[in-house]
Structure formats: C-alpha cells, structure tokens
Design brief:
This protein has 452 residues and is an alpha/beta fold. Helix content is 30%, strand content 17%. A hairpin with a 5-residue loop joins strand 12 and strand 13.
Length: 452
C-alpha cells in the first residue's frame, strides 16, 4: 500500500468511525475513562506475556538490542557484533533468520492453557517495528513477507481460541526507534503526524478488525502526548463500533502522562507493585527472566525467578487487586525454552489446587498480615481465603484478622476435611493444621467460610 493510499484509508476510517459517536463514548478521556471494565478481565487474574520478534535472533542483552547497539552505542553490544558478525551487517539482516521453523501454535496454546492463565498477550510489534503479521504498512518488515513467512498473530489466535479458557490479546508499540516517519514527526516537536496517519492508525485498525483481540496492551507512547497519537479517537471507535467493543480491555499507555491516569486498567510502570489498594483496576507485568523480556541466549539460571518467587509475586498482586501478567521469551526458531515451560506448568499445577483462592476473587478488608508466617488474603462473596507462602513447621497456625462465629468452617484447599480451630480473643483464630502436602511452590491456601 502506498503512502497516499494509506493516508486516505486512515482518514476514511476516522471519518466513518467519528460519525458513529452518537453512541455512548466520545473521544475524550472523561467519557472513555467512564467505561466499565469488562468482567472477564478482573476475574481472569493471570495472563502470559510473550515477547517475540527479530530481536529473538541475536538474543543478546534484551529485546532492546537494536537500540542498545545502534542508538545508545552500548560497548557490550558493539563488541558482541564485532565478534560475531561481519563489518557492515545491518539489523534488517536478522529478519530472515527469524525463521520460526519449530513454531507450533497448538503446542504453545497447550502450554499456555496448562499454566492456568486465562489470557495471552502476544507481541504484534515491538519498538523495532517488525510486525508479526502481514501489516500492509510494514512492507518487507513483517513475518509474512520476511523471516518465517507466516502470520504469527493469526496462527496463534486460532490456536488460543480453541482453548475456551483463554482470551487473546495483543501488545502493540506505538513508536518505532528508527522509522523515518516517526523521526520526522519527532524533529517537528510532534507538530506533524505523518507516522500516525501512515503507520500507527492503519496498523491498529487492521489488528482489531482482522484478529479481534480482547485486550490491547499499548506501549511506546512516552515521547509524545496522546493528541499526537490520536489515542482518544481510536479508543472511542474501539469502544463504540469495533468488533470487540463489548469485550475489549486496554491498558493506560496512550501518550505521555496517561499512564496510571487514563485507560481501561493501569500498568503504570513495568513491574509496578503498589503497597496499598488502588481505586482502579491494575496489572503487574513481570518476566521470568529478570533481565529481559525477549529471549537471551546468555541468560543464566540465577537470572530467572524460581517458582516460589513467582507465586509470592502473583499472590501479592492479586491480594492488592491486581492481575499478574508473566512474560516468557521464545527462541527465534519458535521454541518455548524448557525452563520457561517448566515454570508455566508448575504454576498451573499450583492453581489446580489453589485457583479457587485466586480466580474471580476480590481484595478483602485486610490484604496481608504477619503472624506465625506471612499471610495474604483474598475473598469471594462470603468466603475468605488465607494464602501462606511458607510452612509454619508446627501443628497450629494463627490468623489474626478474621472474625469468627459458631458457623465458621475452615478447610485446606485440596483437602476435603474441615480443620479444627479455636477463636482468638475478639478476632482471629488458631487452626490445627494437617500434614501439608509437598508442593514446589511452597504455598498453601486456607478457605474460611462463615467469617465476618
């Protein structure tokens, strides 16, 4: 598609969609922020993030490889290229090596489902600009015209949707480090919008109409205001007229100053961890590899979160009202590394027993307490769950926050027998614990029915 055709398409789409704003939502934050978040997202609690692209070929340092090499001129990246690639080698030459030869979307979907996750967020395009579908505005810099010659976004969408428990979402970077159109707009102080009209908006409309994602994880927004990105116009169309208008959720990265302020749910910052309840739905994204979101060939076991660390992070997030989005990075040939698959399956095994204390829960009046061992609380209707992440190593276990009654019943998730307990003063109880089952996660959940 030529530039003139692309611009005409974008303007036509905008005019068509803006004409429909006689509905509920107008292209301003006051209206957009008033939209209720679809229930499925809060109930899901757990999602898997997948960072995959041309950066998976050098697989060194992080997914910001191109920027660190040719933008920041990082000495470690310069040395890596000097040692391993011939003089004059360009970043574009990595794309043909992004072959995805072992990419089996059905196998990925099985692993994702086994993790216990309820939604998946795939990188459709990172800051390098390489798209994982045949974007008509990214000629030869996409996975259909180059590299694997496959529609990765579409293939994974089909496989994930066969698993009825999974919702499909897409990550999309608004900006591209070295795109000349973006650099021209940046040079103008973002007074021009060539990149938005010719590239960003056509791609976003194409992604939504073609693949119908139920979640859009926007990123790469921070250098320019939302008025440059035309974010509110796009979101108004998304909420009013798109094929996913009733189910789609979005995050808060739609322009400089928007995060933690505007959008469907808040990401705020990567690995965001509030220490108190927020009055708005939020999500923590974290990565199994603590040093990168994309796959690194030079990662070490000590760089990775172990299962107990992941479960603790996950439980803390849910107790404070957040969703937990855990990232993995596949290899360039399409394999999910064994260590990542192991982590995901172990989380799924823990959730099979303890998922009742996670899925569709709400924060309780107390989020955490330190007693015999640290405890995190969640709730569902009249039931309270107490999740403890270390073995008390004794027969009795004290909880200080629940207010009991004669009708209180305490059970250990995974065990059908009610546990004996005695009250503690005006609130709290002492529970007589059974032998705790061995779990690699080192975490167990008590179910308390009939407490205030």
């Amino acid at each position: 598609m030529g530039i003139r055709q692309s611009k005409l398409l974008t303007l036509l789409l905008l005019c068509t969609h803006l004409s429909a704003f006689g509905g509920r939502y107008t292209p301003d934050w006051k209206s957009l922020d008033a939209r209720p978040l679809p229930d499925w997202y809060d109930e899901a609690k757990f999602g898997i993030f997948i960072h995959w692209g041309a950066f998976s070929v050098p697989a060194f340092g992080s997914e910001w490889f191109w920027w660190n090499w040719q933008g920041a001129k990082n000495p470690a990246y310069l040395l890596f290229m000097a040692k391993n690639y011939p003089p004059g080698f360009t970043y574009a030459e990595f794309a043909p090596q992004f072959n995805a030869q072992f990419f089996d979307p059905n196998e990925w979907a099985e692993i994702l489902e086994a993790s216990g996750a309820k939604y998946v967020v795939l990188t459709s395009k990172h800051h390098e600009g390489f798209t994982n579908w045949g974007s008509p505005t990214s000629w030869n810099w996409n996975s259909v015209d180059n590299g694997p010659h496959r529609d990765i976004v579409g293939e994974l969408a089909m496989a994930v949707r066969k698993k009825r428990s999974l919702h499909y979402g897409l990550y999309h970077s608004l900006y591209e480090w070295f795109n000349p159109l973006y650099l021209n707009d940046k040079k103008s102080g973002f007074k021009t919008q060539g990149f938005v009209y010719y590239k960003v908006m056509p791609e976003l409309y194409d992604l939504v109409t073609r693949y119908k994602p139920e979640l859009i994880w926007s990123d790469g927004d921070w250098e320019a205001p939302d008025t440059y990105w035309n974010s509110t116009q796009f979101l108004a169309w998304l909420y009013n007229d798109s094929p996913v208008k009733d189910t789609v959720v979005v995050n808060d990265r739609w322009g400089a100053g928007c995060y933690c302020k505007h959008g469907g749910y808040y990401n705020c910052a990567d690995k965001y961890t509030p220490s108190e309840l927020l009055n708005h739905k939020w999500e923590k994204c974290n990565s199994v590899d603590t040093l990168s979101w994309g796959y690194r060939r030079n990662m070490r076991l000590s760089d990775l979160m172990d299962l107990p660390t992941i479960i603790k992070d996950f439980v803390n997030t849910v107790a404070f009202g957040g969703n937990y989005l855990l990232n993995i990075g596949p290899t360039a040939d399409g394999m999910i590394p064994d260590v990542f698959e192991e982590r995901l399956r172990e989380i799924g095994a823990w959730l099979k027993v303890n998922g009742e204390a996670i899925y569709a829960t709400k924060p309780w009046r107390v989020q955490t307490e330190n007693g015999t061992v640290p405890v995190w609380y969640t709730s569902k209707n009249t039931t309270v769950y107490a999740i403890f992440l270390s073995n008390p190593m004794q027969d009795s276990f004290q909880l200080f926050s629940p207010i009991t009654s004669e009708k209180t019943v305490v059970t250990l998730l995974g065990s059908p027998q009610a546990l004996k307990w005695t009250p503690l003063h005006s609130s709290g109880l002492t529970v007589l614990l059974p032998d705790l089952p061995v779990t690699p996660a080192g975490a167990w959940s008590l179910k308390l029915d009939g407490v205030a």
